[in-house]
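ugh ok fine here u go
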Amino acid sequence: METITVYYSPLEATRIIEAVGLGLAHHIGIVYTNSAGQSFGVSSGPSIQTTQQTPPNALRAIVSMSENAPSDFGTLVSDPHNNAPFMKSRMDDYYTQDFEGKEFPHARVAEGPDLSATWATIVKTYAAVGKMRLTYSPTSQNSNSMAGEALRRAGLTVPFSINAKFAPAVFTHLPAYQCETQPPTTARCRGAGE
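structure:
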């Protein structure tokens, strides 16, 4: 049996908002495990990893989004290691566990005898969106937006329940479809189908 599972890794930079009752924000990674037991993951994030997630930086990112210009965080990019096989519970498994080996909260979104076509759609969406040079905003257009878009494009439901982990912008729709349905003539779409 094959599975596709969403993992929620806590974002340490959001401990301050957790302390005031808004909840700890989480980053979503998606993991596919095939019938042979091999696992593959996808993830994304900002092109500039060193920017602190402060309110002024987050507000400037929203302004940058209105201009579709890189923010202080840069642009939304796919992880270069996406879709590489990994072994769960090993040192290089940053999708399903923290640095101490503690498993992240997770929700299974699909189970079946062959999910390879569904997984291919998720991988393709991550690649297409990652090449679009979209503004990265920690509050409104981020890695969770890419995860939510990939799940929807694959016909899966974004997990949400009363016990769901706070994943900012997971329900934001990204314009990936524009690059899939139009010739890559605009600078934004050039290379998105590769």
